[in-house]
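The following record pairs a protein chain with its ligand, pyridoxal-5'-phosphate.
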Amino acid sequence: MAQTMITFYPGPSKIYPQVEQYLTEAYQSGILSMNHRSEAFMSMLENVFRQMHLKLGLPDGYEIYFTSSATECWEIIAQSLIKCRSLHLYNGAFGKKWYEYTHRLCSEAQPYEFDLNNLPAPTSLGAVLEGAEVICLTHSETSNATMIPMSFLRELREQTDQIIAVDATSSMGGVEMDWEAADVWYASVQKCFGLPPGLGVMIVSPRAIQRAEELGSRNHYNSLLYIRENFQKHQSPHTPNTLGIYLLGRVMEQVAPIQEVNAVTEARADDWYRFIERSRYSLLVKEEAVRSSTVIAVEGTKEEIKSLKKEALEAGILLGSGYGPWKETTFRIANFPAIESVEIDRLKDFLRKYSKSYKE
Ligand SMILES: *Cc1c(COP(=O)(O)O)cnc(C)c1O
């Protein structure tokens, strides 16, 4: 891929340009050759945790662990926090995959699918919630560009004392979370953190830690209790992605507090939604309240989407493909913090020009 290519792919996605410098610094600092139980590693990790707590506004008592991916978090939750039964509320491909992974390990995992435009009210879930040890939700469903509002999570929290786990893979780092509304939040860094792939972030509440202790599962190399014991000492259970962790720390030092990042994300999303509504295209998600602020899905005919993506590529712009059932009739635009305003303007210019020239 040429250097000048602009990417709006929703993961892996555009990385912060500063990462080039951080890579050199990582190399020069010597940290990349250090053992993960060394003083140098431990103090680096401690600093990354501190920066994350500060910039993301994490509550006291919430702990951070690093994993290899968001996918790994699906399995960690299944084997460390669920004895038998989880409940999976979802409307798209990632929520469904999470359910399927969990179902292989916990045969009583329950799916609860809802319509793209129709998020059920937490108060209407009553009987569905009963008996679920962990309630699993996808905050930003990257496949179809929906997002669960924080108000939903807060209301859900009032409905149940059970553990609430949230897949925030394509929103953490770009959107302000009400952390106390859930117990487990996880993401991977190749989306809103603007970093190269290969690192997962898991944020865990005291309540979830207590649950893991009650279950006492220690059968896996990545059992939550093992992971926790190591990260509490600022170490890592196995040789970690030291480069990824270092880069995350540098990016966390660089970015504004999440309230500021969130304001930019929302303003840019509003702008995108108004732009698409005024254009010849339509939005996949009709219900405004559940539209994602970090991923935008634009709908069109199969022929038009195909030709548009191709011409965009020729103009040096990589658009996100549609996903799953919407593979051929949508394209996706990442609205992640590392994307610059001039890049957004270039895509808008392209879309304006393209829609004038497109012949049906
Ligand atoms: C990208 C994504 C994942 C998978 O992330 P990996 O790092 O590949 O494990 C899971 N859930 C959602 C919502 C995603 O967007």
